[in-house]
Amino acid sequence: MRILIMEDDVSAAEAMARGLVEAGHEPTHAPDGEEGLKQARAGDFDVLVVDRMMPKMDGLTAVEALRREGDATPVLFLSALGEVEDRVTGLKAGGDDYLVKPYAFSELIARVEALSRRRETGAVSTTLKVGDLCMDLIARTVHRGAAEIDLQPREFQLLEFLMRHAGQSVTRTMLLEKVWEYHFDPQTNVIDVHISRLRGKIDKSFDHPMLSTVRGAGYRLDP
Amino acid sequence: MKLPVLLRTTPFRLTLLFLALFTGAAALFLGYIYVATAGEVTTRADSEVGREIASLRTVFAQGGGSALNGALIERASGDRPFLYLLSDPQGKPVTGNIAATPVEPSTAEAHASFRVSETDPDGAVTRRQAWGRQVKLADGELLFVGVDIGAQRGFVVRIVRALWGAGVLIVLLGLAGGVLVSRNVTRQMASLRTVVTAVESGDLHVRAPVRGVGDEFDELAMGLNVMLDRVERLMGGLRHAGDAIAHDLRSPLTRMRARLEVALIEVEAGKADPLQALESTLADADSVLRTFNAVLAISRLQAAGQLTNALEFDLSELAGGMTELYEPLCEDKGLAFDAQFAPHLIIRGDREFVAQALSNLLDNAVKYTPPGGAIMLRTRRRSSGEAEVSVTDTGPGVPEADRVRVVQRFVRLENSRSQPGSGLGLSLVSAVAEAHGGRLDLDEGPGAAPDGTGPGLRTALSFPAV
After folding, report:
1. How far is A193 from chain B (nearest CA, A)?
2. Which uninterrupted H or E stretch holds B77?
3. Which residues of chain B does A104 touch, with a Cβ-Cβ cutoff of 8 Å?
4. Per-residue pLDDT band at B167 (split at 50, 70, 90)
């Protein structure tokens, strides 16, 4: 996946690029907003990782410019500004996700990959299928093979998110944000309990476990 | 050329403006008085002269030229105030007590304002104002009758002179008043300007003097002082936040650095697994980040003084969401979870911060309550109108003596050291409460149980009524 990093902190960008290469991606670095905008216009990127505060042109302006030109490449904003309204302005300017500095690299990777996936599955479908797991979004039912799995509403949402990001790591923070819509960091791992309940329902009586824990990152649903 | 400071002040300019207006008005007034009084004097003299002429005409009509001549001689020597001159048709004087007429000798029906000289017994000559009229008699002779109006005119002149004097006095007084007022205003402005200059150069402790008169200057000074109080408080808050962040992060960073150093030595000596060292360092870094985020959140809440993102929302609904999030965790840990919510409990605040605070309270309850215990989440409307959300557990509780202390940053009680945590949870909750104008109360829970657990802890977060 081709990723453009717009970040004025060169050493942070280098570390990020190395990590992304390690994860099998193809990162490019732009040290300021103007350069970043130029590269984003020229190259075909899958995801843009944009620092909000940069010299010459800040991230918001650059992304707004791209959006005005009809460029819909997914954007992940990085920012030291973590207030609710900062996040809201970021998303309004055309960002797709918002990550507050300092962040864990695993969080960044997971979010970047989640964004690229979002672009691929642009078409609206009423069923999700991962391996022998099948979710009907209209009837709100889940089957694994022939067996129907009974889920609570929140478990259903959780599984839907995991299925939409099958094969990718999703972090606990992402789940808390996207499934529960809370933007804070709980000290105990409340999410783990919900995951283990879900796991009990979709994996327990089957030979092949699909929902695994990724150390230091979060969880991943595989076919 | 620059005017002296005093003369450039606004009050002084206003004084000058008013003075100019006043002088103009006074000049008009003076002019009017002069015209009115002087005119009156002339009118009266003219009517007196008219009456005398009429009486002389009667004499002429009855007795002819000689009778008139006699009357003139008689009247001129009498104590009448009139001046007479009878001239022949060519203008040559015939009889009278003045030498010549001040009007064209040949003209009939003319009047004139003129001056007469009078020689006093001691020889001094005084010239006095007079008014007279000349008429042509039936036989062509010209009769001039005048009257001495020197005394009356002198009176008018004195009035005008007095008015001029008064005008000059008023202008002088006005100027002096203007200077005084400007000096006064300038002095007060200067005291305010001193404050502004001091603030400009970074001194936030100065305050404008309030004289207690309650005038506009006092109001301005008080407004300025209130503003400075607020600015100073905010600046203090920010500085405090900065100091606190530096202080709060120093210890976890020092700890991390020490562990890294030790790990480096151990790995070099082959005594430790590098991978493991890296992993534990990563965990350390994560904990520093968590601490950092918590400290930042607390500092922001404390520095802002008020919420920037306040909205009205239902506290019970939020608590319901939290229940849904935490109930499975409690169940897994063997804790009974009970929720009781008052319907429609609207508060005004930052939803995310309140959620974070509630999550911290629940985290603590889950962490410290031994299996078999219970946690109760409850919202209610107090009789005072405040909205309250409380978390009650059956854990060991916090001794009364420690309840104030545990809310402070990084304070962890002895028996909590075995549990993970930053020691910032309750501080954050307390900061959230304060930022909302509410408070955090810690109380004893349901009391000691027969099995030795308890007495439990009840943490309650209250918000002011909307």
Report:
1. 6
2. helix B10-77
3. 286, 289
4. confident
Q: Is the pTM of this model over 0.80?
A: no
The two structure tokens encoding residue A13: 């960008």
Strand (E) or helix (H) holding B106: none
Please give the Cα distance from B361 to B445 (Å, whole number).
14
Instruction: Check A188 against B279: CB less than 8 A apart.
Output: no
Whole-number CA gyration radius for chain A: 18
Which of chain A's residues have a Cβ under 8 Å away from the Cβ of B290?
A: 185, 187
Does B300 reach chain A within 8 Å, measured CB to CB? yes
The DSSP string of B211-249 is -SS-SHHHHHHHHHHHHHHHHHHHHHHHHHHHHHHHHHH
**Distances in whole angstroms, Cα of residue B280 to Cα of each of B286, B290, B342, B369:** 10, 15, 45, 28
A104 touches chain B (CB under 8 A): yes
Of B292, B328, B425, the CB nearest to A194: B328
In order along its 223 residues, chain A shows pLDDT tens digits of: 899 999 988 898 999 999 999 888 999 999 888 888 888 888 889 899 999 888 888 888 999 999 998 888 899 999 887 666 788 888 888 899 998 887 888 889 889 988 876 555 556 678 888 888 889 989 899 998 888 889 988 899 999 999 988 888 898 888 998 898 888 777 778 889 999 999 998 888 888 889 988 887 789 998 8
Residue B352 in contact with partner chain A when CB distance is under 8 A: yes
Residue B412: band (very low, low, confident or very high) from pLDDT cuts 50, 70, 90? low
Pick among B276, B309, B330, B359 to test the A interface (most A CBs inside 10 A): B359
Task: Supply A145's token pair.
Answer: 């093979």
Burial code (b: 16+ CB inside 10 Å, e: under 16) for B394-432 equals bbbbbeeeebeebbebeeeeeebeeeebbbbbbbbbbbb
- Inform me whether the C-beta atom of residue B325 falls under 8 Å from chain A C-beta atoms: yes
CB proximity list for A35: less than 8 A, separation 6 or greater: A6, A56
